[in-house]
Amino acid sequence: MNDLIATVRQMMGQTELPQEIFIDAIETALMQAARRRYGTTDGIRIMIDGESGLIRCFVPKKVVNIMRSYAKEIPIEEALEVKSDAEIGETIEVEVDLKDFGRIEASTARQILTQKIKDAERQQVLQEFSEKIGELVTGYVHRIENRSVILELDRTEGILPHNDLAEFSSYGRPNFRRGEALKCLVVNVADANHGPEIILSRANNNLVARLFELEVPEVEDGLVEVKSIARDAGDGSKVAVHSNEQGLDPVGTCVGIRGSRVRAIVEELNGEKVELIQWNSDPTIFVKNALQPAKISRATLSDTEESVVKVIVPDDQLSLAIGKRGQNVRLSARLTSHRIDIVSESESVDQLKAEMASVFANHVKKDEVSDLKDDPITSIDGVGPKTAEILTAAGYATASDVTNASIDDLANLDGIGTKTAKRIYESAKALKAESD
Q1: Which 3 state secondary structure label does DSSP give 23?
Q2: pLDDT score, position 397
Q3: Domain span at 272
Q4: What DSSP designation does 177 have?
Q5: Could you give the CA distance from residue 277 to residue 292 in angstroms, rounded to a whole number?
Q6: Measured between alpha carbons, how far is 425 from 435 in angstroms, rounded to an integer?
Q7: Which of 15-29, 54-68, 233-247 shows the lowest per-residue confidence on average (mean pLDDT)?
Q8: CA 211, CA 261: separation in Å to the nearest integer?
Q9: Of 119, 177, 269, 316, which shows the fewest CB atoms inside 10 Å?
Q10: Do residue 17 and residue 116 come from a single domain?
């Protein structure tokens, strides 16, 4: 039984379990040992002093003249030392020395105690990590199993499944160094047969959000808010940020002095590119920001489709806006929760010409032969895609429509102005004169 006490003291020094759990485990273990020795636990009492660690055991024994069973009887001479008025036939409570427990009883107690402590630790780990779901933890690489990485966590192990490894393709084998520290997101906790199962992830979008909270105090304090994240794990991420404090630049704050803050996050993600985007409640502005570094000529919401933004870019910016393997536009669409239709300016002109031709054809049918010679709006010198779109929206589809209007009418259109209106009007008159 000395081994049992030594085991208890050793366990108390190695775990962080509350003392109450140890006391309960010791009582249960000693009760089972007593049952094995005395055949029952009726009347047996265990007393444990939490401060001194003293353990006392009291068992009921019958006072007899001649003792035949040490476990159940006590001779009258010894009984009188315990209770001065003890009488033969009476049952009294006698303190027994735990050293008197045999090897088998001690072994039983030790096994029960060990199991009780393991169960308590298991429940404590489950509760602790259940409260950490969605939070960041640091684990240390222990081994590789079936392409998944097993990490050492506080008092347990975590599983980083292969499909949650941002650093490798689905066919690669992780080559982390043993003992290497990895920051991961806790995504699930389960009570498996072999013990607590802590599922981790480095591919989850929220990992990036938690890293910004860790590296940027303003994000942790709520002065800067991470609005949305779009991520090709291991390759690139776009992070939309917004300032809740007037005058505070959210992008610059997250980047840090000479890029120190965002660089720390990139290093933790093993080189994954992280782009910070200024969030905006206007979806067209948000989309233009998201498509950076491409320059955008125009972004408008679709009149016919919901959550669709139509984007026009200069011809030399089209490939940059789309990105390698379509990554830039794909991440931008995910970041903004809008479908993005991108065309170049030349493609936009072609589309506009086709639309104007259709409008013109309908106009011809209505106005007979007199209008057959009329020219579409895009044929007017100096009318580009943006100007043509403004004029068409206002009902000016042909050169005749422009010459039939006044310069003031044209100048009052948003985005035109007096100087441009005069130039367009004169160009339309010249075109009409040539046609006539």
Answers
A1: helix
A2: 83
A3: 212-278
A4: P
A5: 8
A6: 15
A7: 15-29
A8: 10
A9: 177
A10: yes
